[in-house]
UniProtKB/TrEMBL annotation:
Protein name from the UniProt record: Sodium dicarboxylate symporter
GO CC entries: plasma membrane
Topology in the lipid bilayer: Multi-pass membrane protein
The keyword Nucleus appears for this protein: no
Keyword annotations from UniProtKB, A to Z: Cell membrane, Membrane, Transmembrane, Transmembrane helix, Transport
Native source species: Secundilactobacillus kimchicus JCM 15530
């Protein structure tokens, strides 16, 4: 088989496995190649804010004002349902398997950095709204950029009913196309870059770093698998699409999410495959997927709920019904303003753990495996976003089911 015939998904998988083997064989020496992976992540991330900004404006700007409210309400409802489901599965997994009983308190050490004081609810909500959109773009504040883009796109949709601003809409659309082409160009570097990234991570941590928390990772992986199976089965039935085609269309999205642990890096692949392989219309995918990246972090909700239950077990704290509800609500709220780059899970924990009255030093327990738990988090995040887009597209009669036909049965062009 010639190399150019091997798909990108297969190349990335080979790169991931090769990177792990390289890291184990060469140890500290392998950390020197990690810079190649870091450069790759930066090249992807440099265009993400622009991609989100333009995609949301174009998606809203091309919608009929009457359809805008209905589509937004459906998207928000799906986000809420999937996030609550994920948080509940995380909570239930912690209560069932009791991972906190397998960890000793003397393993907890300070993370070496003090956590910022927890923001009040008013401050958290206020920080969603930008005072200067250029400052928000420059700092990469995803939530603030999305808020501005939603308002701008809504105004553009209302003002352009007679085509007065079609030139501006065309300009935004062309900018989006070029941005996607730029990201896809960078994605050609993915196999070797991800190999370097995995080699560096494995070499820096070593295989033994996972042993004390192997049970936690196993439980979290099982919970993620349960969530994905349930979600894919339901969406397959709801949207009336074959589950085999659904899994096939999601395969490259999952691989990229799993190996990079970044929803931001996976977003361009999501937007491309949602349209090309999963039949979602451009108008739906460009609205739902960027919003989902910032507002629908199913994997984080599950992770936070499981971690909170584990910590209460570790400190022998008995959870009441009110405490269980509090954990679920905190897990859901933590999805608002989620950091969409690797390491976002620890940031969320430094905010939520003190809120529950638990020592901030507890976060250290998860610092060493954050990259590995981030693999499961990101997969749950992107699959939740993409299946929401499929469900919304099915509701809006904007789903092409021909995309789910296998290559052997699909009509030739």
């Amino acid at each position: 088989m010639k190399m150019h015939r091997v798909g990108l998904t297969t190349q990335i998988t080979i790169g991931m496995v090769g990177g792990i083997v390289f890291g184990l064989l060469f140890g500290p020496l392998a950390t020197t190649v990690k810079i190649l992976g870091d450069i790759f992540l930066r090249l992807i991330q440099m265009a993400v804010i622009l991609l989100i900004f333009g995609a949301v404006i174009e998606a809203l700007g091309t919608l009929n004002p009457q359809d805008l409210g209905k589509l937004g309400a459906k998207t928000g409802l799906w986000f809420l349902m999937t996030t609550l489901l994920a948080a509940t599965i995380g909570l239930g997994s912690g209560l069932l398997f009791k991972p906190g009983l397998a960890v000793h308190l003397d393993q907890l050490q300070p993370v070496g950095a003090t956590a910022k004081a927890t923001s009040s609810l008013n401050e958290t909500i206020l920080n969603f709204f930008p005072t200067n959109i250029f400052a928000s773009l420059a700092s990469g504040n995803v939530i603030q950029v999305i808020v501005f883009a939603i308002l701008f796109g809504t105004v553009l949709s209302r003002a352009n009913q007679r085509g007065q601003f079609s030139g501006l809409l065309t300009l935004v659309s062309q900018l989006n196309q070029l941005t996607v082409k730029l990201v896809m160009l960078v994605m050609k570097l993915a196999p070797i870059s991800i190999a370097a990234l995995m080699a560096g991570i494995v070499a820096a941590n070593g295989s033994q770093v996972l042993l004390p928390l192997f049970q936690f990772l196993g439980i979290y992986g099982l919970a993620t698998a349960l969530f994905l199976v349930g979600l894919l089965t339901f969406v397959s039935w709801y949207a009336k699409v074959p589950i085999v085609g659904l899994v096939r269309g999601l395969s490259q999205i999952i691989i990229v999410a799993f190996t990079t642990t970044s929803s931001a890096v996976a977003l361009p692949v999501e937007m491309r495959d949602a349209q090309a392989k999963l039949g979602v219309s451009k108008s739906v995918s460009q609205l739902v997927l960027p919003l989902g990246m910032a507002l629908n972090s199913n994997g984080l909700a599950m992770y936070v709920a499981l971690v909170c239950v584990m910590l209460t077990q570790l400190y022998h704290i008995q959870l009441t019904g009110v405490g269980l509800i509090q954990i679920v609500l905190l897990a859901v709220l933590s999805c608002l303003g989620t950091v969409v780059v690797p390491g976002g899970g620890l940031v969320a924990l430094t905010i939520i753990v003190p809120t529950l009255g638990l020592p901030i030093s507890s976060v250290a327990l998860f610092a060493g495996i954050d990259w590995f738990s981030g693999m499961f988090r990101t997969v749950a995040n992107v699959v939740g976003d993409t299946t929401t887009a499929i469900a919304v597209a099915a509701d809006e009669h904007a789903l092409s089911r021909d995309a789910y036909k296998s290559p052997a049965t699909a009509p030739k062009s």
